């Protein structure tokens, strides 16, 4: 089986209806899916243009040579190299529908059972506002459960040797990365409350679940969403075997994430950055603080809370990143030499969100193919 990069996604994630004008809406996922599928179509078109060997055999020798030697126009050449570039990564994408696994026991590891039950009951009654920003619709509870299932499926995938090529062959990184394309996001959700568009703490639930898997003793979470993941931090802060590292704008919502918040076991590293920060600022902090922290922790699995609202175009924050910067960020994660699971958090400008998710996936695929 050749290398494939999975995107865990379901149309059902669009059924969490937050109402007209809400920034965290189904259009976010539609934009990303459209963008990725278009890249796949370009890749398919490029591979269709290759002349089948059987056809070449049937052509008279001189015709065959003529076909092969005919130089393409410069314009076509540019088209072809763009398509070839697309082919290299986009044709490796596979879409995986999340399983209907039982997730309540995993959720209850980090959330109060009474909160989860109340969420279910509130949705069943039609939903409404849970806090000033967080609104749910009748389907939202089930959507949130399926989002957790997708994250846990992602953990299984990246930790699995079976679902990938053997790690000992030339496609060594195969199966060790995946992207979980879900909503609602999770990193603001607290133990017993929804918050900031988030219902369930997908990343913390996944980290706790991963620790139940054979051979997984330490899990790190890197949160590059522009907002501090107050919920994730709270749900892992007393766990010596889970580390949390966050890059976030400060001051900004939700106001947590001070450098003085270090966790019960020095397992939390907060890296606040002022508004307007660029990739240079992120790179400096990565080299000076995040990389040493993550390298010393030595995780068996890295979970990335991949929000894309630090993009310059994002309407909810004031940072100055561009989609290509997430390719750099992705490569740094992969160089930590652990399986890496990327899961969507924020990102509210459709175009740069889609481009950034694609940059993340492209970078992960190129890394896998090169190693
Ligand atoms: Zn955010």
TrEMBL record:
Leader sequence segment: none
Entry-linked InterPro entries: HDACs, His_deacetylse_dom, His_deacetylse_dom_sf, Ureohydrolase_dom_sf
All residue ranges annotated as the Histone deacetylase domain in the record: 94-362
Residue ranges of the TM segments: none
GO MF terms held by the record: histone deacetylase activity
The organism's place on the tree of life at top rank: Bacteria
Protein's name in the database: Histone deacetylase
Family: Belongs to the histone deacetylase family.
GO biological process: epigenetic regulation of gene expression
Pfam assignment, any one: Hist_deacetyl
């Amino acid at each position: 089986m050749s290398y494939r990069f999975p995107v865990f996604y379901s149309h059902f994630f669009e059924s969490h209806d937050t109402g007209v004008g809400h920034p965290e809406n189904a259009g976010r996922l539609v934009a990303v899916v459209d963008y990725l599928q278009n890249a796949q179509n370009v890749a398919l078109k490029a591979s269709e243009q290759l002349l089948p060997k059987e056809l070449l055999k049937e052509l008279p020798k001189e015709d065959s040579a003529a076909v092969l030697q005919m130089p393409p126009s410069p314009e076509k050449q540019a088209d072809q190299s763009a398509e070839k570039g697309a082919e290299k990564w986009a044709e490796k994408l596979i879409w995986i529908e999340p399983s209907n696994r039982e997730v309540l026991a995993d959720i209850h590891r980090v959330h109060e059972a009474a909160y989860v039950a109340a969420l279910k009951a509130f949705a069943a009654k039609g939903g409404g506002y849970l806090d000033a920003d967080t609104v749910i619709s009748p389907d939202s509870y089930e959507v949130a459960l399926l989002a957790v299932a997708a994250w846990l499926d992602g953990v299984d995938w990246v930790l699995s040797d079976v679902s990938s090529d053997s790690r000992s062959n030339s496609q060594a990184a195969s199966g060790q990365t995946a992207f979980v394309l879900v909503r609602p996001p999770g990193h603001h959700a607290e133990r017993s409350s929804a918050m900031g568009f988030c219902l369930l703490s997908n990343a913390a639930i996944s980290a706790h679940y991963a620790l139940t898997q054979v051979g997984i003793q330490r899990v790190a979470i890197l949160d590059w969403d522009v907002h501090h993941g107050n919920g994730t931090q709270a749900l892992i802060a007393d766990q010596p075997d889970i580390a949390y590292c966050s890059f976030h704008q400060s001051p900004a919502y939700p106001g947590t994430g001070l450098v003085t918040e270090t966790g019960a076991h020095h397992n939390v590293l907060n890296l606040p950055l002022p508004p307007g920060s660029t990739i240079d600022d992120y790179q400096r902090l990565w080299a000076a603080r995040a990389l040493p922290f993550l390298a010393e922790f030595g995780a068996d699995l890295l979970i990335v809370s991949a929000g894309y609202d630090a993009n310059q175009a994002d309407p909810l924050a004031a940072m100055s990143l561009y989609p290509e910067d997430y390719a750099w960020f992705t490569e740094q994660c992969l160089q930590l030499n652990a399986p890496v699971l990327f899961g969507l958090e924020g990102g509210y400008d459709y175009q740069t969100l889609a481009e950034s998710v694609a940059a993340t996936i492209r970078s992960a695929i190129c890394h896998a193919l090169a190693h």
